[in-house]
Design goal:
Length: 218
């Protein structure tokens, strides 16, 4: 068991080191040597977990999705908002998420399949929109999969703009504005009126999840 725990810790240390290097340097410029130096592990340990730089990048891309699910909400639109705002908050505070976003938006990352995060986000949002539709929260014309793609694309654009303008400092307000401008064309007005779309929502959801984790509940 101790050996397995050590392996898990080593893998996480490598991923965190890779995240730091990828965020700072980008995929093309990052080197295995830099990641090794940052992780302070042997080359054998790194290659045991990640046989190539592409595998490392995919590990970082996958890792940012591990905390996406949040507790079910009675209002599915609020659950969508909470999912998006939580990710925006974590992007400001979690180097693994920042690195994953940098990689997914890095058009210079030749040979790296960057589609995973976009496809996973579309699946998550589509599923929640379908549940919202079943509960009568959406306007009649809405096609969940198409709306999900619009939201995911808009979210990616806002992230890229915020990073370029001020290194994500205004991201929460920008995401709040995106939702306030997009959702009225999708959601029944009475449902939207009761939803919290404010920029502070991400921090509140993060604190909620921290409390649940501390209490030992799923």
């Amino acid at each position: 068991m101790a050996k397995q725990e050590r392996a898990i810790r080593t893998r996480q240390a490598i991923l965190l080191a890779a995240a730091r290097v990828f965020e700072e340097r980008g995929y093309q410029a990052a080197t295995i040597s830099e990641i090794l130096a940052s992780a302070e592990v042997t080359k054998g340990a790194l290659y045991f977990h990640f046989p190539s730089k592409e595998d490392l990048a995919q590990g970082v891309l996958h890792e940012q999705d591990q905390q996406m699910p949040i507790p079910d909400r009675a209002c599915r639109i609020q659950q969508i908002v909470d999912t998006v705002m939580l990710h925006a908050y974590r992007l400001q505070t979690d180097p693994m998420v920042r690195a994953g976003v940098r990689l997914s938006l890095d058009q210079q990352a030749q040979g790296l399949d960057r589609s995973g995060p976009f496809l996973r986000w579309s699946e998550v949002i589509t599923e929640l929109l379908e549940k919202a539709q079943a509960q009568g929260e959406l306007l009649p014309h809405v096609v969940p999969a198409a709306t999900a793609d619009v939201l995911v694309g808009g979210f990616a654009g806002v992230q890229a703009m915020s990073q370029a303008v001020c290194n994500y400092q205004d991201l929460l307000n920008r995401v709040s504005a995106l939702l306030r401008h997009t959702l009225p064309g999708v959601v029944v007005s009475s449902v939207l009126t009761s939803a919290d779309l404010t920029g502070s929502r991400g921090a509140a959801v993060f604190e909620e999840l921290q409390t649940l984790a501390t209490a030992g509940r799923p």
